[in-house]
Amino acid sequence: MRGMWRALAKLDRVGSWADSALGFFYPEVCQICAGRRATKGEGYVCPDCWARPDGVRFIKPPFCNVCGLPYEGDISGEFECSNCREMDLHFSHARAAVVATGMLLDVIHRYKYSRALWFEPFLSDLLVRAAKPELECARVDCLIPVPLHSMKEKEREFNQANRLANRLSAATGIPCLNRAVMRVRDTETQTQLTRNQRAKNMSNAFEATGRGDVSGQRVVVVDDVLTTGATTAACAKALRKAGARDVIVWTVARGV
Predict the structure, then answer these.
(1) Which of 18, 167, 183, 248 could form a disulfide with 12 if both were Cys (CB 3.0 to 4.6 A apart)?
(2) What is the structure's pLDDT at 11?
(3) Torsion sign over Cα 104, 106, 110, 116
(4) How far apart are CA 166 and CA 123, in angstroms?
(5) For 7-56, what is each residue's pLDDT tens digit?
(6) Per-residue buried b or exposed e for 123-158, using 16+ beta carbons within 10 Å of the residue's own CB
(7) Predicted TM-score of the model (pTM)
(8) Which domains, ranges and CATH numbers included, belong to the chain?
């Protein structure tokens, strides 16, 4: 089975061969419910699964002006949540396309850890729909994906943030600097850590490489999910140290 994932990952890099392989292994059926038609262009996610109670929920105001955490109810004006008031985030603001619901987290987990690359059009479409209109008005200079440690990227065989950032770059025309930052520590997985533990775990985890000048630039850090902001804040800190004028963050999903 692992050999099949590797084969598909390699085929995905050569265009039409990937389409043929995915069509062979996975007919045009939703990879969530396995009961309805869904095409490769839809990322094999059908409209009914989009509309599930735990399906796609685009983030709309009100939300925290810094980290983008959505809130229900009537809140007038801009506000900052308690998490942001207590953390040194190093980015000016973060935004996400959708709420990290159960279905979204399942898709992202399968995409990252099981090489389910057929979900990429679905995930990148969510990101582009939300981010493109905002970035067209923001006058940003470049996109920078959050890097994996070299050992982890070798094991996984791809970096999901890199691929999503490339898709966003193609949709917006904003250049993507894939190697401007490197992860210098192979950090512990963040999943089971508290907010303070996450911040400590990510401390000094990134360094600018010099492979892409960010001095005086307004940059966008791209990742798949933002929870407490510890990872993107650590990446933003390295970019600020390298001279970035401003750092904002865009992710596909926002944990709540």
Answers:
(1) 18
(2) 42
(3) negative
(4) 12
(5) 444 444 444 444 445 555 557 999 999 999 999 989 999 999 999 999 99
(6) bbbbbbebbeeebeeeebbbbbbbbbeeeeeeeeeb
(7) 0.87
(8) 1-52 (no CATH), 59-254 (3.40.50.2020)
